[in-house]
Amino acid sequence: MIIVTGAAGFIGSCVVSRLNKEGITDIIAVDVLRENDKWKNLRHLDFVDYLDREQLFDFLAGAANIEAIIHMGACSATTERNAHYLMENNYRYTLKLAQFAMNHGARFIYASSGATYGLGELGYDDDEDNIHRLRPLNMYGYSKQLFDLKARREGWFKNIVGLKFFNVYGPNEYFKGDMASVVFKAFNQIRQTGSVRLFKSHRPDFKDGEQLRDFVYVKDVLEVILFFLQNPDKNGLFNVGSGKARSFLDLVNATFAAMGKKPEIIFFDMPEHLRDRYQYFTEAKIEKLRKAGYQKEFASLERGIEDYVRNYLLKDYAHY
User: Which of 17, 48, 63, 237 sits at 20 to 30 Å (Cα–Cα) from 30?
Assistant: First the structure.
């Protein structure tokens, strides 16, 4: 049996779908369903049972033969300011799950985040020996960082896998609102107005729209997760990104192209409160992932967006 937390969410629901494609259906789907539409991500999935997050540990108390826990569940809102909630939901819950997995011989794969790198002033190297030097910009990033530090301190990375996701985009993110990817937002702006709005640059070394991010397609993320699930001897903390920074202009132009439309971009001032904590450059170093044995190529930004737009967004938000 495999437990997937965050199973109704963006990456989590895609994980369940990817497992289904491997013929794996002995899955317990865990999430928190409230007043949004993420329940729709469950409709096409095949799993044994659904549990609310608060029911999971009661279930585990009587469970046997848990092969793996793929822990994608978390509050992923970088704007969340309730530090107590984030500590309980993102840190403490992950801690309890990891301890259960290690005590019962289950594979444990969890979502960390590229947000742990802060402004990137120390680079984007996933060397576990240096993660204590990182300074996340928001409480979300710190809640992820705290578990990474705990795992390193306790020596758990010899037995578990942490994945530092960068800017993931793709199907099943439709419910995320402000936290949805720029691709999703750009698609809807183009459909509604024919144009896309992007932040102006407020640094002289970056032109408008040339701020850089590591955008990674969710289907590539799934292949990385599957690799670690199938290779239990590979453990540690790993970046998961394309390894190539691309500009917001590249992203928006690729979205227009996938929709068969001519680009029309409007630049506007970034809000004052964001300017001192805005990342102008992120790029995952993925050499460690390669050394672990993962050799599949990551989709280019153009290829990933083309697949996402044509096979999902233009089909009324079809699900993966």
Answer: 237
Residue 196 to residue 266: CA distance in whole angstroms: 6
- State the angle between helix axes of 301-311 and 182-193 in degrees (0 to 180), rounded to the nearest 10: 60
pLDDT digits (tens, 9 = 90+) for 202-255: 999 999 999 999 999 999 999 999 999 999 999 999 999 999 999 999 999 999
Residue tagged active-site, from 140, 217, 294, 308 = 140
Angle between helices 248-258 and 301-311 (to 10 degrees): 40
Residue whose entry in the numeric block shows the structure tokens 């030097």: 133
Active site residue 176: yes
C-alpha span between 36 and 254 (Å, rounded): 29
Neighbours of 25 (CB within 10 A): 13
Average pLDDT, rounded, for the chain: 96
Q: Which amino acid, 169?
A: Y
CA separation for the pair 127, 175 (Å, rounded): 34
User: What distance in Å separates the CA atoms of residue 318 and residue 239, rounded to the nearest whole number?
Assistant: 28
Total-model pTM: 0.96
Q: Which distant-in-sequence residues (6+ apart) come within 8 Å of 86 by Cβ?
A: 75, 80, 139, 140, 142, 143
Active-site residue flag, 294: no
Mean pLDDT across 6-13:
97
Catalytic member of 40, 150, 176, 288? 176
